[in-house]
Design a protein that fits this description.
Largest sheet: 5 strands, parallel
Shape: globular
Bound molecules: 2'-deoxycytidine-5'-monophosphate
Order of helices and strands: EHEEHHEEEHHEHEHHEHE
Distance between the termini: 20 Å
CATH class: Alpha Beta
CATH superfamily: P-loop containing nucleotide triphosphate hydrolases
Strand order of the largest sheet: 3-7-1-8-9
Helix content: 40-55%
Number of helices: 9
Number of strands: 10
Radius of gyration: 17 Å
Number of domains: 1
């Protein structure tokens, strides 16, 4: 079974997707795997930077993406033998990932990896186009949204950014504009996708709402 979740950054979708994967058991009695598709774009970006390839160069970045040794082991993303997840939110990766993710053939490479990782599994997959392009027939499809102000506040309160609230808000708006205007895989609410505005909800409330709708899997008490 596939549960697909999309939405812009700062809506709590990674936390919620992880919570669902940890707590749900499929109809077949097997657990769920959590797959963060943004991490695949980030790992390709990291690999490009390490090899001196400009992540904005469509040809160079695609050449690298096609041979990048992306492997999912133990639910963690590896580049070859190296577990790279702790490196994926570095500032240099953060800056370059958005333009790289707009390169259409690279999207096809990532989509292939995500489908391959999820094949035959119960999986919670999250990103920007999981509900529309990659798994349009997923059993459950959700879109989590929140106002820019609220998302900026959440990021500010994490204490990891050195920017002030206004600057965070501006950078979120810029990232949204790129994500919503891609040639392919743009961020949008697809037909039939359940949309939830999380601006005034806690994570627990969002989780409870989603669990209430996922009736074909059982959750831990
Ligand atoms: O979710 P995230 O911030 O880690 O995603 C990193 C970048 O990749 C972000 O610019 C959006 C993009 N992305 C995408 O285009 N499609 C996806 N399915 C997931 C992420």
């Amino acid at each position: 079974m596939i549960i697909a979740i999309d939405g812009p950054a700062g809506t709590g979708k990674s936390t919620i997707a992880k919570m669902l994967a940890e707590n749900l058991t499929g109809k077949d009695g097997r657990p769920f795997t959590y797959i963060n598709s943004g991490n695949l774009y980030r790992a390709i970006t990291l690999g490009c930077l390490r090899q001196g390839i400009d992540p904005r160069d469509p040809k160079g970045a695609l050449d690298y993406a096609q041979k990048a040794p992306l492997v999912y082991k133990g639910g963690r993303l590896h580049l070859g033998d190296e577990m790279v997840e702790p490196l994926l939110h570095r500032d240099d990766v953060d800056r370059a990932v958005s333009p790289l993710s707009a390169i259409v053939p690279i999207r096809h490479v990532v989509n292939g990896h995500v489908r391959q990782i999820a094949r035959g599994l119960n999986a919670v997959v999250e990103g920007r186009d999981m509900t529309t392009v990659v798994f349009p027939r997923a059993e459950y499809r959700f879109y989590l949204d929140a106002s820019i102000r609220e998302r900026a506040k959440r990021r500010f309160n994490q204490g990891v950014s050195r920017l002030n609230l206004e600057a965070i808000e501006k950078s979120i708006a810029e990232r949204d504009a790129i994500d919503r205007n891609k040639e392919e895989g743009s961020l949008m609410v697809g037909p039939g996708v359940i949309c939830l505005d999380t601006s005034d909800l806690t994570l627990t409330e969002v989780y409870a709402k989603l669990i209430g709708m996922i009736t074909e899997a059982s959750s831990k008490p």
